[in-house]
Write a structure and sequence with these properties.
With 98 residues, the protein is an all-alpha fold. 64% of the residues lie in helices and 0% in strands.
């Protein structure tokens, strides 16, 4: 068995954060998501200034791109009338994620 190196994802385009923020502002969840994105972005900027790495910024952009891309599936699930009152929040089990 040989170890295969993990593929490093390509960094987001330089304007990806601005485009993402525009898309978040256009979403119906903008009131909640824009402040959360800005908070994540500010933390990533601070982390980047200490580590001299753009990785925290890239991670924020990738995470929010995935969240935005998943919204149609989440909306379809929620609109299907599924009852989730007896379930436990994943954050309660796993704890806060970076």
């Amino acid at each position: 068995m040989s170890a295969q190196p993990e593929e490093i994802p390509a960094p987001p385009a330089p304007a990806a954060a601005a485009q993402l923020l525009t898309a978040l502002r256009a979403d119906r969840r903008a009131e909640m998501w824009v402040p959360a994105f800005e908070r994540d972005w500010a933390k990533a900027l601070e982390d980047s200034s200490h580590t001299y790495s753009l990785t925290p910024l890239h991670d924020v952009v990738r995470t929010w791109q995935l969240r935005l891309a998943a919204t149609p599936a989440v909306d379809a699930y929620m609109d299907s009338g599924r009852d989730e009152t007896g379930f436990v929040d994943l954050d309660d089990i796993l704890g806060p994620r970076p």
